[in-house]
Structure formats: C-alpha cells, structure tokens
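Incident log, structure service

09:12 report received: a user says their structure output differs between two submissions of the same chain.
09:20 pulled the input from the user's history:
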Amino acid sequence: MNLSARARWAVGVAAVIGLAFIYIPLSVVVINSFNASQVFSWPPTEFTTMWWQKALENTGVREALWTSVQAGLGATLIALLLGTALSFALVRYDFFGRSTLNFLVVLPISLPGIVTGIALNSSFTTVLQPLGINLGLFTVVLGHATFCIVVVFNNVSARLRRTGTSLEEASADLGASLWQTFWFVTFPAVRSALVAGALLAFALSFDEIVVTTFTAGPGVETLPQWIFNNLFRPNQGPIVNAVAALLLLIFIAPVWLAQRLSGSETHAGGRV
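09:34 re-ran on a clean worker, output below:
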C-alpha cells in the first residue's frame, strides 16, 4: 500500500510518540541505576556502578530471582501441557458445550488479580492444607498456571485455525501414523506458537505479584515482591533500579531469539 507524504509523516510521528512513551521511562530506570545518589533524583549528579554490584551481591535478590524463575518455569510447563491439549480439543473437535468450555478456559485472564488471588487462597487452604500441603512455591506455580494456560491456549488455537487440517489429512492418506503426523506435520506448524506462548506465559508469571501475595505463604518471596517491598525502604531505591535494569537486559535475549525463530520458520516454510 502506497501512502502519501503527509500520511507517512503522520505515521512516523505516531511511531516516535509510541516508542517514546514506552522507552523513556525504561531509560530513566537504567540511567538511575548508575546514579550515585541514594535517593531518587534527576538528573544524576554522578555516575557509579556500585548499585549494580550491590544488587548482584544481595542475597535477597538472588533468592527472590531463583524463586521467580522456578515459579515461571513450573507455571509455563503446566500451561504448555494443558493449554496445548485444550486448544487441540476445542479447535479440532466439535462437541456439545464447546463454546462454553472455551469461555471458561479464557475467563481467568480477564478476572481481576485480587479476585483470582482470594479464590485461590480459599481453595488452597480448604482443599490442600488438610492434605498437608501448605501455601508455598507449589501453590504459587498452580496459581500462576491458571492464567498462563490462557496465553498458550490462545496462541496455539489461533495457529491451529490458521493451518487447518488439510496437511494432517494428507499425511494420514499417505500412510503416516498418528505420531508421525503430529511430529512431522502438526508440531512444526505450531512450534513458533508454542514458543511465543511459553515466553508470554513465563513473562506473565515472572511479573505477577497480586496472585503471588495470596498464594505464596510465609518464607516465599518472588522478585516482584522483593522489588515492591524494598522500593521505598531507606537506601534501597538505587538497588531496586539496578535490579530492574538488569531484568530489562536479561529479557532482551529471549525476545530476540523468539523473533529469530519465528522469522526463520516464516522464510523456510512460508508460515507466519
């Protein structure tokens, strides 16, 4: 589509405004992580890497980061298994109540976190505690999986609807077994959707704080909780900025890899 000069100018201005709206606050956090001042101040009077060193040496940061990684990986694994299975069931098969079940699957992502947290806390204390399972990392993983399933389900369902069943039917007609059809036809078609869903599920889990507060129990603290608890404590603000900047740098690599993978599959197989 060809745009006029005025339209291209308007699109360019809108793009610059949008990018500035997103990245200026992130840039402020990164710059402040090198600010020598112990309180929030702008502009920085002097630059230092001291806060990065203290963030890396902080035991609470390392433990909270490891807790968040464990919770994210556990919730993502559950989401991949259940979300993918649900997407195949609801897209590939027609049965009574399918639309209702589809609504129930996607509902948790639209509920306020406070409602989900209270419901999960009540359920866990009523059902799991009598069985000897107290609130902890396991319940955090289960809580995060409730909404992580939705993002995997949506990604895989969209890809299954786009690809249709013609390739799978052709594979079966040529004598391939059910497993061969899945491995050589279906899985390559949904692979990038699984990667995108897994990345989004992990990011949602890693970022979650409301549901975590209701399901973590004493002694379990994720990194978002650590940041929230230390943000306004004396002399902790610069360390929080350094932790936030470090997370920003860490999450660049997975997003870049996912883009490269999706781009490679698009050029190689003609899929989007």
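09:41 both user submissions now match this output. Likely a transient worker issue. Closing.
09:42 reviewer note: DSSP finds eleven helices and no strands in the chain. Confidence is low (pLDDT under 50) at residues 264-272.
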